[in-house]
């Protein structure tokens, strides 16, 4: 029995900041951000959008691919941007999607790696329970402090994946190689609003973890690099993925994988899967039956190299036009508005646009209050 990704969708903020605007205001040469780091724009989030609201938006899109929402037995929410150490963010998604009360819901965490962990868990679960479907969600919003070297590599997005038998999009293959090592390259202490990081150490460890897991994957699978048709890397910023490509698959272009990432920014746990959707949506090649190598990296750190094969007829399961429109229709913010968003400050005279049908309206008694948005 084949198990894998039956459907996949993503959402991000309705707002973005151009990186040349950021560069101008930080007295940095625009080319450093746009060429040196490989980022053109980044998603920025208004005060009423959070990891739950964007997750619900992505989940609603992917659920539209199912005949019956009651088919979902398990919901796994992967995030490193949680606002609660106890309650799963997945419970809000379960509630607003109206999933069955006997659906199992929990969160998982390991920096940007967590969706891959959830995907592999879901694959095993479906292997044991062939009639089950699992909804895997990855949702993150990343903020670095203003003026720091990390500032141009912020971003955020949510990915929603349905894992099922006889998938219509991609089969997750059985071979994988993982590598775990204790390192302080990126971390988010609970009391800090913004991420702390050592970018150079992180890049070094990312590339070393790639080398180890790629060799491990080849050994375990008995495949050679030429058996891999396309490759997709976790992309904290696009140049990082290009460096990864140069180390392993210098003969292959990964341009199609980075089209969305270059204008969304680092979406952490969702990043690798946003790159995968970007490849499927934008590749001019017919990917039917092609093997895609995937490298997942989460600081701290855990990495995994694994692969998927594309299912014949996969194009029917894509929403390329919808994805492009979502990104094209975003609203540009000025540098001043961006600074306001960073402080999570609402402009009292402004009604913010949301990506989905649920928005976070206020925090009351330290509880987040969400409500359904009236269309328009
Ligand atoms: N024109 C073109 N390129 C330029 C340039 C210019 N004027 N000025 C600098 N560059 C290039 C540099 O040569 C460098 O390229 P290289 O890496 O290929 O050598 C690149 O731009 C970045 O320059 P650098 O001096 O290294 O920038 P920085 O010290 O500001 O740091 C990051 C950049 C990406 C390392 C930093 O934004 C960061 O750490 N972000 C967080 C990343 C992270 O840790 N994510 C989580 C882990 S997955």
Under CATH at level 1, the class stands as: Alpha Beta
Head-to-tail CA distance between termini: 45 Å
Find the count of extended strands (DSSP E, 2+ residues): 16
The radius of gyration over CA amounts to 19 Å
What is the number of domains? 1
Mean pLDDT: 97
Overall spatial form: globular
CATH architecture assignment: 3-Layer(aba) Sandwich
Oligomer: single chain
Main sheet characteristics: 9 strands, mixed
Structural class: alpha/beta
The CATH H-level homologous superfamily:
Thiolase/Chalcone synthase
Uncertain spans, ≥5 residues at pLDDT below 50?
none
SSE order: EEHHEHEHEHEEEEEHEHHHEEHEHEE
Helical residues, percent: 25-40%
Bound molecules: coenzyme A
Approximate strand percentage: 25-35%
Total helix count? Answer: 11
Please give a handful of descriptors for the protein shown.
376 residues, alpha/beta, Peroxisomal Thiolase, Chain A, domain 1, nine-stranded mixed sheet, three-stranded mixed sheet, 16 strands, binds coenzyme A
How would you characterize this protein structure?
With 376 residues, this protein is of the alpha/beta class. The chain has one domain (3-372): Peroxisomal Thiolase, Chain A, domain 1, CATH 3.40.47. The protein is 31% helix and 27% strand. It has eleven helices and 16 strands. The strands form four sheets. It has a nine-stranded mixed sheet with strand order 5-4-6-7-1-8-13-12-11, sandwiched between helices. Strand 12 and strand 13 (302-310) form a beta hairpin. Helix 1 (19-25) packs across helix 2 and helix 6 (199-221) crosses helix 7 (238-248). The longest helix is centred in the middle third of the chain and has 23 residues, at 199-221. The model has no long low-confidence stretch (mean pLDDT 97). Coenzyme A binds at residues 29, 31-32, 35-37, 112, 149-150, 152-153, 186, 197, 199, 202, 206, 236-237, 239, 297, 299.
């Amino acid at each position: 029995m084949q198990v894998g990704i039956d459907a996949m969708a993503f959402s991000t903020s309705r707002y973005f900041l151009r990186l040349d605007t950021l560069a101008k205001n930080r007295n940095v040469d625009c080319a450093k951000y746009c060429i040196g780091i490989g980022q053109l724009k980044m998603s920025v989030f208004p005060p009423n959008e959070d990891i739950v609201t964007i997750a619900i938006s992505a989940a609603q899109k992917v659920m539209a691919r199912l005949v019956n929402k009651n088919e979902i037995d398990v919901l796994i929410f992967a995030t490193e941007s949680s606002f609660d150490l106890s309650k799963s963010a997945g419970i809000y998604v379960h509630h607003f999607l109206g999933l069955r009360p006997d659906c199992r819901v929990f969160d998982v965490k390991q920096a940007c790696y967590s969706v891959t962990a959830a995907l592999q868990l879901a694959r095993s679960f479906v292997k044991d329970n062939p009639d089950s479907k699992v909804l895997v969600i990855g949702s993150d919003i990343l903020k670095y402090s203003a003026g720091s070297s990390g500032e141009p590599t912020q971003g955020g997005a949510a990915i929603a994946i349905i894992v099922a038998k006889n998938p219509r999009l991609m089969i997750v293959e059985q071979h994988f190689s993982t590598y775990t090592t204790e390192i302080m390259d990126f971390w988010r202490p609970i009391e800090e609003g913004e991420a702390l990081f050592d970018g150079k150490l992180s890049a070094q460890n990312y590339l070393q973890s790639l080398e180890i897991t790629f060799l491990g994957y080849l050994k375990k699978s008995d495949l050679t690099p030429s058996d891999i048709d396309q490759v997709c890397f976790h992309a904290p910023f696009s140049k990082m993925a290009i460096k990864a490509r140069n180390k392993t698959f210098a003969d292959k272009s990964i341009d199609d994988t980075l089209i969305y990432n270059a204008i969304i920014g680092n979406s952490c746990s969702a990043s690798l899967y946003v790159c995968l959707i970007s490849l499927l949506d934008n590749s001019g090649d017919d990917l039917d039956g092609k093997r895609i190598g995937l490298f997942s990296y989460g600081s701290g750190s855990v990495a995994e190299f694994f692969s998927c094969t594309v299912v014949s007829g996969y194009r029917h399961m894509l929403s390329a036009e919808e994805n492009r429109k979502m990104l094209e229709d975003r609203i540009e913010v000025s540098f001043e508005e961006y600074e306001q968003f960073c402080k999570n400050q609402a402009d009292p005279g402004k009604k913010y646009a949301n990506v989905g049908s649920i928005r976070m309206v206020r925090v009351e008694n330290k509880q987040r209050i969400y409500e359904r948005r009236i269309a328009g």
